[in-house]
TrEMBL record:
The keyword Signal applies. PANTHER family: GLYCOSIDE HYDROLASE FAMILY 16 PROTEIN, GLYCOSYL HYDROLASE-RELATED. Belongs to the glycosyl hydrolase 16 family. It comes from the Bacteria. This is Putative beta-glucanase. One of its GO terms (biological process) is carbohydrate metabolic process. Residues 1-22 form the signal peptide. Pfam families: Glyco_hydro_16 (PF00722). InterPro entries: Beta-glucanase-like (IPR000757), ConA-like_dom_sf (IPR013320), Glycosyl_Hydrlase_16 (IPR050546). Keywords: Signal. Residues 20-287 form the GH16 domain.
């Protein structure tokens, strides 16, 4: 473990007044119900229950490549082809996971759907639940970029019934504005009732920042660099339709290109390649 990986970086954080939108569904809305919150967040001082410090090569015991919708097209009309483990869009360089988006003439693989952009999407093979999550990452700028750090269930439940937790989303045409959102059957962007908040993170594209989630049976709190900016409570009627966050989820790291939200102002090919860099992923299971 390097000194770099043990250094907690701090950054200026300014709360904004509107909410976020989900990446992986059909028609994102930027008008999330505002759940802004201000409070301290701190990772446990103990050894993580699960983590990856990204040294050597990508650990295929921990991660899987999601390529399942390349031929049919990804939700939200995204433009990327997600490469598999044989590609180089996801790789480890200088102690960080690099997920790189490129504009390129792609070889016509069996699952190729006509895309002219490539990228990568990784998900944990292990499902994770209540506890504290911390992902230290540097985000890509450039119009058309749509990086995300998020959670989905892997139990076969349909969206939005199974829920979704977006720890971090940003779109390249609005750099440094970070979105956190939760979705459920009763509260989601299709109904324009998704619950979330935004924060401005200075230097999100030029330096590493810690994107954090504390998930308990009664609350979901999301923050950056030790400061929470969103909190959603299990305080709405509707049972599982309002609060499906009772099952284990897979943690997902991906960089989409274009799409209904990320591509609202087009894609700047001249800005590519762009990469999301992840220094580490750490998860402390709740006791």
């Amino acid at each position: 473990m390097t000194v770099k990986k043990m250094t907690w970086w701090l950054a200026g954080v300014t709360l904004l007044a509107t909410g976020a939108s989900a990446q992986q569904m059909d028609t994102p809305s930027l008008g999330a119900t505002n759940y802004a919150y201000d409070g301290a967040m701190a990772a446990p001082a103990t050894r993580p229950s699960f983590g990856d410090e990204f040294s050597g090569t990508i650990d295929m015991r921990r991660w899987r490549w999601d390529t399942g919708q390349n031929s049919t097209g990804w939700p939200n009309h995204e433009l990327q082809y997600y490469a598999g483990p044989d590609g180089t869009n996801a790789r480890i360089e200088k102690g960080a996971l690099v997920i790189e988006a490129r504009a390129e003439a792609l070889r016509k693989e069996a699952d190729w759907g006509g895309q002219r952009y490539s990228s990568a999407k990784l998900a944990t093979k292990q499902t994770l639940g209540y506890g504290f999550y911390e992902v230290r990452a540097q985000l890509p700028c450039g119009r058309g970029m749509w990086p995300a750090i998020w959670l989905l269930p892997m139990d076969g439940s349909r969206w939005p019934d199974g829920g979704e937790i977006d720890i971090m989303e940003m779109v390249g045409f609005d750099p440094e504005v970070i979105h956190a959102t939760v979705h459920s059957a009763a509260f989601n962007h299709r109904l324009k009732t998704q619950r979330g908040a935004e924060v401005r993170v200075a230097g999100a594209c030029t330096g590493y920042h810690r994107y954090q989630l504390e998930w308990t049976p009664g609350t979901i709190t999301i923050g950056v660099d030790g400061r929470a900016y969103m909190r959603v409570k299990n305080d709405q009627p509707g049972g599982a339709a309002a609060w499906p966050f009772t099952r284990p989820y897979s943690l997902i790291l991906n960089l989409a290109v274009g799409g209904d939200w990320g591509g609202q102002r087009g894609v700047d090919d001249a800005a590519l390649p762009q990469a999301m860099k992840v220094d580490y992923v750490r998860y402390w299971q709740a006791k």
